[in-house]
Amino acid sequence: MRDESYPKAAIQGALPPEHVIIAFLVLINDLDVATDYIKRIVQQQVGVKAAAIQDGQNGSPASLTELFPFGHDSVFVENNLKGLESGFESKTSELINDAIQVMFQQVMKPRMRPVLAETFRDVDYLLSEKDVGEFDGQDGAEEGGQDDLVQQRFERGWMGLTRPIKRILTDQNYDRLIT
């Protein structure tokens, strides 16, 4: 992630290339999926022990106790598997959080500036006496005009910025990025 797919611009002040951003997003998802698979594998192996005891060990997969019958080997293996799971999850969570931070700093933030500049381009915030009179007559419910224009411009820019990222990232990672 840091060496080959780090989303930084080749030229200072430019945006990172799209293929590098996509590769980085895919690697974030890979870490998330790997964490999920490690959890499943460990829970399945540790869960086999409980299932084998409940089933009376008839036709069920071999439990850790059957695979490691000497002394407390099965307890040792179970503790090591749980340690593997928690260590792997903590490291990947740290990497994912760092990657999300990089995505925000290197991709989202630089692209957000032009969206905001376009959103508020040519908007006049000074009200004439006519505008003040119309505003008072509407009881605070302003319809149409500059508010709609600003909202439409922002929505168009925001969707253009976030839609490609949302298609690639998992929902959980996308929520982390937006948060």
From TrEMBL:
UniProt gene name: COG4_2
Signal sequence annotation: none
InterPro entries referenced in this protein's UniProt entry, alphabetically: COG4, COG4_C
Domain Conserved oligomeric Golgi complex subunit 4 C-terminal: 24-178
Name of a matching Pfam family: COG4_C
Organismal lineage: Eukaryota, Fungi, Dikarya, Ascomycota, Pezizomycotina
Protein name: Golgi transport complex subunit 4
Organism whose genome encodes this protein: Cryomyces antarcticus
